[in-house]
Each structure stands twice: as structure tokens, then as C-alpha cells.
Automatic annotation (TrEMBL):
Protein name: Phenylalanine--tRNA ligase beta subunit
Listed GO CC annotations: phenylalanine-tRNA ligase complex
Protein source organism: Litchfieldella anticariensis (strain DSM 16096 / CECT 5854 / CIP 108499 / LMG 22089 / FP35) (Halomonas anticariensis)
Gene name as annotated: pheT
Xref: HAMAP family: Phe_tRNA_synth_beta1 (MF_00283)
Keywords (A to Z) from UniProt: Aminoacyl-tRNA synthetase, ATP-binding, Cytoplasm, Ligase, Magnesium, Metal-binding, Nucleotide-binding, Protein biosynthesis, RNA-binding, tRNA-binding
CDD domains: PheRS_beta_core (cd00769), tRNA_bind_bactPheRS (cd02796)
Enzyme class name: ligase
GO molecular function, one term: phenylalanine-tRNA ligase activity
């Protein structure tokens, strides 16, 4: 909001310079964005009277004027403005004057006629942008010879305040003056507003069909208004300095009252109203042409002002073109209403609009202002446009007005929150100057918030007001008393960033998806999953919290495939949500997905597609990054969304922590995917567990290697065989490697040949053949007894 410093100082004028005043307002929580001069620098301009106007003898578009500038000597000036006339008071730049743009006024001859000075337009004085079509005409009361800059109080500043949404009470001069008065312990000089004497009995009927959204609606008929009257220059200037352009006297008055008191208002042409005003919700199919010429289709959740023929305005936003005040208007219906913030919030933006009225109503307007604003606007209109006011029609639903708020404030809580006690007298003084009604209670005070403070609801709000007015910079600075002993940090844990880097190094790209997914997609992938359903979802396909990372990864895969990206490698880390709200478990997981070619397309690359073992290898590299690969196991498993023959549970120290597998063909068909996809997800708390590396001296003695080819049943998991070999191979085994699995000629059907390489090394001596042979015999014997394995000949 912009406001004039001089206008503010008419209400309350602390002994502070402009910058100090701006700093004080900012420190009180009303941030000042900018301070700008209301006019550019100029000098030598006075108020003058055009005593005579004659046509120029050699130019049709020029006039020769005689000017009285108060010096006692008439001056001849050539003027090209079409609106100049004898008897006008105008701003006159004398010879030697300096105008904006470093323009100096000198004696001149125009078409042979001497000109000593210049009659100025508003743009030439820097009071408006662009070029004015005529000179600036002043009021008849302007004193001839008076310095124009002084008379217009142009040594003024526009202060722009950026208010937070909870401080709608300061979107007016009255609200800002109230704040400055409280901060400086000064009384605020408000304009005297008294009810006007009624000149006629004509009323226009008002009906409020939706009192919950519009608890109060006030209207008044004013007859005989002269819309062609000129808005006084002082009002035009105050509007300009507040960032509002003058339009016509009726609109200017309603804008002025809005700036002064904070109450948006609207005036209708009474001749265009029919039967009665009705405040109601719009009906299906209704349309409205707004004042800006835009025609909109109204939705049925929009509150409108209507008459018998249809909508006249969007309540609290903008009026309609048909019922607005025009040059032919003689009688007006002046409205002032209180619309609840929720009734207006978002309505303007939903139609692509933003108005000063909607800006205020969305933040809350004082419901007690409506009648006062009508009286103030009526008084100003009668002074400027004439007119005869009728009785005020007040339709109020008291049960729907905001209730009075009583808040308990404890003295002990003040000290606890602010870090210092405040004297009782100071607390009461601050709150009372803020307009609150304060009474003592057992633990402190009982405070009644004023009608204009919608943001005062709880005890902490009152404490914030005390801190704000007392001064944040006067609160003590205290360091928290806390034990600062270092907490132990597990050095064995690896950060998530290392896991991300490892996945990127394996050719994956990180995806970030929503934590809420489509219920249908989650049902397809995890029919038994239970997760919270959103009460107010963004859309129907984002209505439940994800119970797995799989739905988000599948959606990302579909997005890529639809854009001709056939080779996809994605991973994601985030929370999954399992269980009902009363027993909700939030689990951090890391998941991945791969499909398409095994290697990027290239002249040396093959055309093999990625398979289960490729992704298992990527996952194993992730598991091994913690330095504790032996703690992990893969076991065959059954998952509702994964291929029954290509699915494994991921175990850490025997605990089930994740899944890996190929997408189930039936699921893939239901999703409409034409390619195989391999997915995995593992709990992050297990993935980040690692072990500290320890140094093992290098042996100077030779290694001994034996290769064994064992025939085992086809269904036997190789991991079980490897575990058996490690048990029997002794403590000097340094490496056990699976290097071949063979089925075919020489191997009976239903069996497979598993080729293993075993390497031993002693730290302090050379191992002999007898020792190695004993270990090999133990391995063959034990594997034969457990699994029926035998050496392949």
C-alpha cells in the first residue's frame, strides 16, 4: 500500500524525520519497501490568474493570455493549451523558473508575439506520466502569487508498505495512523464524521440471501448527483500519491474513503437497478460484463450482488459495466458491506482479477466500518457533486458477524516468551492503545480483541503485539543454556549422498516424484497395501500416500517412454507410508528401475536388453559400498507386482529390508507397458549401515588356488552352496569366486554344473598340498551330504 507522508501526518505527526518514521514502521512489522518523492524538483512556479485570453494574430492554435502572478505587473504569455480560459487559476512558471528535466524558462517570441513565462500542465511539472492534453486548472480558492510547490505541499513523500496478509487492518490511513500513534504514544486526530440529515425518504430494497458470506450490507440512495463535477485537486493529489488514478467524482470518493478508512465501497446507477438488491450465490449460466469490459461466466460458488434481472457485481471484487455510474447518472445507490474473508478469498484470482477491494476483503475488513464509511462518502459526495441523501438501509445478520474474542494473557507466559518481565502498567497501556479492552484476571489479564484485528486469536498473538510495540530491539539477548557435549556419530554410517553418487556412476538418473499417487496405480502394483488417503487431494490421481516407491518410478518410466526414451535408468530416495493414520509407519527407502538396452547405443555396443542380473549387480555394488557385503543376502520370494520366477527378497543380517525383480507380465499388460522393467527398493536405514575398514597386513607367501566343478540340482540356490563352502574352507580362505554355471551335454537333465574358484593364503607361511587337499575333501564331503553335490568328472 502507498500513502502520502503529509496525509498521514494530518492524522498523527511524531517528531521523526521521514527515514526514521519509515524505520519505525518497519521495526513494528509493517515493512517499508520504498520512500519516493511525490514530485520532481522544480522552482519558480507560482499560482496565477488568467485575467484575459485573446487569439494569437498569426496562429490558430495559440492564444495570447494576460497573467496576474501576484507581482503587481500583468504578464503576457503565449499558450497552446485548448482548455485555457479567462478566470482560471493555473500554475505559472516565471522567467528564470527551473522545471523537471533541467528545463529553464526564458523570455521568448512565438510567431512574433512576446511570451514571458509558461502556463504549466501536470506532466510538465512531473505530477503525471506522459503528456497532458491541457494545462492544470487549480481551484478558485488557490491564492494568487503563492508558491505552487508550497501550496500543493509537494515537498512530500510516498511511502510504500508491504503488509503481511494478517495485517489487513493497516490497509488504510486510519490503520497506519493508529499504529504510528501507538508506537509514539500520540493521539490520533481522526476526521469528524457525523450522520447527515436525511433529505428524502426514498429507499431501495435490500435482501441478503447468503448472510453467512455477507453478514452486513448497507445501502443509501443519493438523488441529484452531478457526475460532471470536478474532483477537487487535493483529493486527486491524495489519490495520486496513493497510486490511484482519478476517474470521476463518485468513483474518486469511494476510492478515497477506501484509502482513508479501509472500507471498499461501490456506487450503482439507481436508474439501472430493478426492484431490489439481492446478495446471493451466482446461478448456473449467469454472465457478467465487468467495469473493465471483460465478460465472464460466473461459477455457482461466486457471491454476487444482483437485482431482479441478474448479477450487477462480483461481491467484494468488481462491479458490472451495465449498472456502473456514467455521465447520464443522476441518482446513485451507494453500498458498503462486510463480506467474510473466506467468501472473497481466491474469487478474484480465479477470474484473473486483482482489485484493491478484493485485496482488502480477503484479509479482513472491520465489520464496524460499513456505516461510518457510508456517512463519510455521503458527506464528501454532497460537497463535490451535490445530491440529497436518503435514509441508510442496514441489513445485518448479527449471528454471522465475527464473534468477540476473549483471550487470557498470563504474566508468567509473557516473561517466558520474551525473556524479560513487563510491568503490568506497560502491558495494559500497550494493549489499550491498540484498541483492546483489558481487565485483570487471576493469572494476568482478560483481553477483548477489537473488531479490526482479525489476527488476534490466541495468547501468543497478544505477546507478539507486546514485543512489537515495546520494540524487538529492546528485548534482551540471551544465549540458551544448553549442554553442548558432542554427540557420538556413527562413523560406520555412510551418507545418502554417497549412495546417490554410486547410482549415478552406474548410469542411473535421480527422479523426484510426489509422495501421493493414484489409488488405481497403487492397487495394481500393491493390492494389499494400506496407506493414508488424502482428505483434500490435488487431483483424483494423487489421492493416497505412496506405500512403495514403485508407483512413482513406474509413472516416471511411462513419462519417458511416451517421449521416445527407450533406455531408462532411474532411482529415487524418499519416504513411503504404510498403515492407517493411527498406526502410520514412515519408512525411508531407496528404489531404482531399469529398462531397455543393457548398454547405450553405439558401434561397439551389443543389442542385449537389460535383465534381472544386470540390476542385481547394480544393487550389489550399492550394498558393497558400505564395506559389509557379506551381511546381505538375496532369497527367492513372491511379490504381487513382480515376476514370480524373477523376484528376490533382499535381506540384511537376516532381516527383510527390500525387494528386487522384473515387473510381472500381467501388471505390465494392465499398465500398457510394452517393455520389461526391473525394479528394486531397499530400506535406507539398512543401506546406510556399514563397517569401519581395518588394516590387514599383506602376506608375503604365495596363494594357492583350486577350481571345483560341482554337479548339483538345478533348483539349488548357489548362495546356499557358497555358504557351505565358506564354512568348510577354513580361516585362510581369501577368495571364493563363482565363474561358471553350465547345463547341457555331459550334465544330466535337472542338474547344473557350478564352477568355483577357491583361493587360500597363509599370513606367515606357505601352505602345502596336504593341507589344501584336506580342505577340498571336507568341502566335497559336506556339500555332498547337504545337497547331494558331486565332483564333475
Amino acid at each position: 500500500m502507498k500513502f502520502s507522508e503529509q496525509w498521514l501526518r494530518e492524522w498523527v505527526s511524531p517528531q521523526l524525520a521521514t527515514q526514521a518514521l519509515a524505520d519505525q514502521i518497519t521495526m513494528a512489522g509493517l515493512e517499508v519497501d520504498a520512500v519516493e518523492a511525490v514530485a520532481e524538483e522544480f522552482s519558480g512556479v507560482v499560482v496565477a490568474l488568467v485575467s484575459q485570453k485573446d487569439p494569437h494574430p498569426d496562429a490558430d492554435k495559440l492564444s495570447v493570455c494576460q497573467i496576474d502572478d501576484g507581482s503587481g505587473e500583468p504578464l503576457q504569455v503565449v499558450c497552446g493549451a485548448t482548455n485555457v480560459a479567462a478566470g482560471q487559476k493555473v500554475p505559472f512558471a516565471r522567467v528564470g523558473a527551473s522545471l523537471p528535466g533541467d528545463f529553464k524558462i526564458k523570455k521568448a517570441k512565438l510567431r512574433g508575439v512576446e511570451s514571458r513565462g509558461m502556463i504549466c500542465s501536470a506532466s510538465e511539472l512531473g505530477l503525471e506520466e506522459g503528456h497532458s492534453s491541457g494545462i492544470l486548472v487549480l481551484s478558485d480558492t488557490a491564492p494568487v502569487g503563492e508558491d505552487f510547490r508550497t501550496w500543493m505541499t509537494l515537498d512530500d513523500n510516498m511511502i510504500e508498505v508491504d503488509l503481511t496478509p494478517n495485517r489487513g487492518d493497516c490497509l488504510s490511513l486510519k490503520g497506519l495512523a493508529r499504529e504510528v500513534g501507538v508506537l509514539n504514544r500520540l493521539a490520533v486526530q481522526e476526521p469528524v464524521i457525523e450522520p447527515l440529515e436525511v433529505a428524502h425518504d426514498e429507499r431501495f430494497a435490500i435482501r441478503v440471501s447468503d448472510p453467512e458470506r455477507c453478514p452486513r450490507y448497507i445501502g443509501r440512495v443519493i438523488k441529484g448527483v452531478d457526475v460532471g463535477a470536478t474532483t477537487p485537486l487535493w483529493m486527486v493529489e491524495r489519490l495520486r500519491r496513493s497510486g490511484i488514478r482519478s476517474i470521476d467524482p463518485v468513483v474518486d470518493v469511494t476510492n478515497y474513503v477506501m484509502l482513508e478508512l479501509g472500507q471498499p465501497m461501490h456506487a450503482f446507477d439507481l436508474a439501472n437497478l430493478h426492484e431490489a438488491i439481492d446478495v446471493r450465490l451466482a446461478r448456473q449460466g449467469e454472465r457478467l460484463v465487468l467495469l473493465d469490459g471483460q465478460e465472464i461466466a460466473l461459477r455457482d460458488n461466486t457471491l454476487v450482488i444482483a437485482d431482479r434481472r441478474g448479477p450487477l457485481a462480483i461481491a467484494g471484487v468488481m462491479g458490472g459495466e451495465h449498472s456502473g455510474v456514467g455521465l447520464e447518472t443522476r441518482d446513485i445507490f451507494l453500498e458498503s458491506a462486510f463480506f467474510t474473508p473466506l467468501a472473497v478469498a481466491g474469487q478474484a484470482r480465479s477470474y484473473g482479477l486483482h482489485t484493491d477491494a478484493s485485496h482488502r476483503f480477503e484479509r479482513g475488513v472491520d465489520p464496524d466500518l460499513t456505516r461510518l464509511a457510508v456517512e463519510r462518502a455521503t458527506s464528501l459526495l454532497r460537497e463535490i457533486t451535490g445530491g440529497e441523501p436518503g435514509p441508510v438501509v442496514d441489513v445485518t445478520s448479527h449471528e454471522h458477524l465475527p464473534p468477540a474474542r476473549q483471550i487470557e494473557l498470563r504474566a508468567s507466559r509473557i516473561e517466558q516468551a520474551l525473556g524479560m518481565p513487563l510491568k503490568s502498567e506497560m502491558v495494559e497501556d500497550i494493549l489499550q492503545r491498540l484498541g483492546m479492552v483489558v481487565s485483570e484476571s487471576r493469572e494476568g489479564w482478560r483481553v477483548a480483541a477489537p473488531s479490526w484485528r482479525f489476527d488476534i486469536a490466541i495468547e501468543e498473538d497478544l505477546i507478539e503485539e507486546l514485543a512489537r510495540i515495546h520494540g524487538y530491539n529492546r528485548l534482551p539477548v540471551r544465549r540458551p543454556a544448553a549442554r553442548l557435549a558432542l554427540r557420538p556419530d556413527g562413523e560406520s554410517r555412510q551418507p545418502l549422498s554417497r549412495l546417490r553418487h554410486q547410482m549415478v556412476a552406474r548410469g542411473y538418473q535421480e527422479a523426484i516424484s510426489y509422495s501421493f499417487v493414484s489409488p488405481d496405480l497403487q492397487r495394481i502394483l500393491m493390492p494389499q497395501a494400506v496407506s493414508p488417503r488424502l482428505a483434500n487431494p490435488i487431483s483424483s490421481d494423487m489421492a493416497v500416500m505412496r506405500a512403495s516407491l514403485f508407483p512413482g518410478l513406474i509413472k516416471a518410466l511411462e513419462h519417458n517412454l511416451n517421449r521416445q526414451q527407450s533406455r531408462v535408468r532411474l532411482f529415487e530416495s524418499g519416504l513411503v507410508f504404510r498403515g492407517d493414520l493411527d498406526d502410520l509407519e514412515q519408512i525411508p527407502m531407496l528404489g531404482g528401475l531399469a529398462c531397455g538396452l543393457r548398454e547405450p547405443e553405439g558401434w561397439s555396443s551389443g543389442r542385449e536388453m537389460v535383465d534381472f542380473y544386470d540390476v542385481k549387480g547394480d544393487l550389489e555394488s550399492l550394498l558393497a559400498s558400505g564395506g559389509n557385503a557379506s551381511a546381505w543376502r538375496f532369497e527367492p520370494g513372491q511379490h504381487s507386482s513382480l515376476h514370480p520366477g524373477q523376484t528376490a527378497r533382499v535381506l540384511y543380517r537376516g532381516d527383510d529390508v527390500g525387494w528386487i525383480g522384473t515387473l510381472h507380465p500381467a501388471v505390465r499388460a494392465e499398465l500398457g507397458l510394452k517393455v520389461d522393467a526391473i525394479l528394486f527398493e531397499v530400506r535406507l536405514d539398512a543401506l546406510t549401515q556399514g563397517c569401519l575398514p581395518s588394516f590387514v597386513p599383506l602376506s608375503r607367501f604365495p596363494e594357492v588356488r583350486r577350481d571345483l566343478a560341482l554337479l548339483v540340482e538345478e533348483s539349488l540356490p548357489v548362495q546356499s552352496l557358497l555358504d557351505c563352502l565358506r564354512e568348510q574352507a577354513g580361516e585362510w580362505l581369501t577368495e571364493l569366486r563363482l565363474f561358471d554355471i553350465y547345463q547341457g551335454k555331459g550334465v544330466a537333465e535337472g542338474y547344473k554344473s557350478v564352477a568355483l574358484g577357491l583361493t587360500w593364503q597363509h599370513p606367515s607361511r606357505t601352505l602345502n598340498d596336504d593341507e589344501i587337499n584336506q580342505l577340498v575333501d571336507a568341502i566335497v564331503t559336506e556339500s555332498g551330504q547337504r545337497f547331494g553335490a558331486r565332483l564333475r568328472s
